[in-house]
Design a protein that fits this description.
Helix content is 61%, strand content 3%. The chain has 115 residues and is mainly alpha-helical. The protein has one domain (17-102). This is DUF4190 domain-containing protein.
Length: 115
């Protein structure tokens, strides 16, 4: 985060403020990471990733008066980690299901003595 010296700023320029969306992205990313293994993390992760894009565009258009890019970056990383955990949980569940299904006997089970 770089700030301009007071001598270079115009007196009517607004003070730089932290973006509220950056805090929301971080919070949603943290929730996504914590609930990712239960596959419920996909919802907050997708919201966080969408909100991060909006916050980046707003920060770019603000000309440096919106801060919080570090929180935004951390939140986005947490959201992607939550997505990875959710995908991993789904893959593990499918593999366990396939192994369980493969262990069951195939075909009809007839009574003994019937051919």
């Amino acid at each position: 985060m770089t700030t301009t010296p007071a001598a270079l700023r115009h007196p009517l320029d607004p003070e730089p403020v932290r973006s509220t969306k950056a805090g929301a992205v971080f919070a949603l990313g943290l929730v996504a990471l914590l609930t990712g293994p239960f596959v419920g993390g996909l919802v907050p992760a997708s919201i966080a990733i969408t909100l991060a894009g909006q916050a980046r565009r707003e920060a770019f258009r603000s000309g440096g008066y919106l801060t919080g890019s570090a929180w935004l970056h951390r939140g986005e990383k947490l959201a992607w980690a939550g997505v990875a955990l959710a995908v991993t949980a789904l893959v593990v569940a499918v593999v366990i299901g396939v192994i369980d299904f493969a262990g069951q006997p195939a075909g009809h089970d007839f009574a003994p003595g019937i051919d």
